[in-house]
Amino acid sequence: MLIAAAEAAFDDFLNRCAATGFWRPDAHPLITALSGGPDSTALALLADRLARARNIPHHALIIDHGLRANSSEEAREIAAQMGKKSISVDILKINQPKPASGHQEWARAHRLRLLAEAAYQQNALVLFGHHSADQNETVAMRLSRHSGLRGLAGIAPLRFYQGALFARPFLSSQSFQSSQPFQSYSKADLTQLCDLLGAEFISDPSNQNMMFERVRWRRMLASNPGLSGQLNRLSCAANALSCQLDTQIRAWLDVHVRTVARLRASCSYAAFSSQPEAHRHHILASLLAICGHSAFPPNIDALAELDKRVASGRAGTLASCKLTCEGKWLVVYAEFGRKSSLEAHLTPGKIGYFDGRWMVWAGCAGKVRRLGSMALSAKEISQLALPEVLFGLPKKLRDMIPILQTLDDRLLPPHLKSRSLVMGGQNGSFEDGASHKHAFIIWPAPIDRPVRL
């Protein structure tokens, strides 16, 4: 009964993902982010059963973080267990030096980056095994940090992250379209699913380490079951209200805001200031998301302070953006900041993600850098033949334009692509069918945000 119910709920979740238009079962495969614990193991098993029934390509991806001495052996054992179930598994290793501290956050950031890169290349939907307890812990932590409405909605079942689409089918979340909640699953449910499906799993010892904030909250919530229910209700209420508010804010942005390539956004200050305070804060968060590159919006206190600064005629900076009033206009600029050495290495024919704002593709190998980080004369810059819409930007924004430096030190200007890539087989092919052997093509990355189901 549990297996059938879980498969039906998973199938319904995928149908809702398809209804957004961002995922198509006939064109976009599924990738399960597999850690080997009961949550992701149950997810991989269910995803594979459903993918086979619906003829959707699916495989699992293990990220070997290297934090434990036996992590590589552990990854191979997990892959072998999946192999017994005829589930294809790839293992990717984090090949970056570990920092002196903050190992867990370092591993998480690189794990998500590698999963996002896999999603780009395969045009895939990445699945995570987060469940109801993870949601409650997240809401508790955000509540303690004075998060606003969006933060208290918790982990989104579907969201864009660094240009990739991430999904969490086991989370309980209110559907904006149908007002029906998704089926919520607990860790006990997922452990039982593994047992029923005859799959072994491992336990991560860090899940018991009280050094970590999430583990401390987990212990506290386990001893206060009533609080978990209250956090769940808070999350559902915040999500429902946030959905309604997002709809209103999007409608306002469509009418009043003009943007240029995720580098500049502007609107009438009179129109902005006439909005209720809560709306102003959400408008500011949206403008910062357009021109900045933070995965999550600033907290409500920071947005309120920024609102006050703008109202008093002062400029303000937040989330890698600068806000200022220029005559009758409220203007948001992307800030060059301290990332002058920022670069991304591109493999020919592979999609990359750069500077939190751009998806990038090249027909030849090289590294992408900001124009302003290169010691070029005005004449050399004019010879780059930048796209007109970018060349006309103020210098402080033009400095943030991605430029490809090839292996033989040629500098290639970007070509703007208004449409997304259509993936063909193992390699990306563009809709116009040209080879683009020497081209460097960029397009705005999707804004990091929840996608309403």
* CATH class category name of the largest domain: Alpha Beta
CATH superfamily of the largest domain: HUPs
Separation of termini? 26 Å
Taking Cα atoms only, what radius of gyration do you get, to the nearest Å?
23 Å
Which outline best applies?
globular
Number of DSSP strand runs: 22
Average pLDDT score: 87
The helix tally amounts to 15
Give an account of the 3D structure.
- Strand 19 (422-424) and strand 20 (427-429) form a beta hairpin.
- The radius of gyration is 23 Å and the shape is globular.
- Helix 1 (2-19) packs across helix 2 (38-54) and helix 11 crosses helix 12.
- It has 453 residues and is of the alpha+beta class.
- The longest helix is centred in the middle third of the chain and has 32 residues, at 225-256.
- 40% of the residues lie in helices and 20% in strands.
- It folds into three domains: 2-236, 3-Layer(aba) Sandwich (Rossmann fold), CATH 3.40.50; 257-334; 343-450, no CATH class.
- The chain has 15 helices and 22 strands.
Keywords:
single chain, 453 residues, alpha+beta, 3 domains, seven-stranded mixed beta sheet, five-stranded antiparallel beta sheet, 15 helices, 22 strands
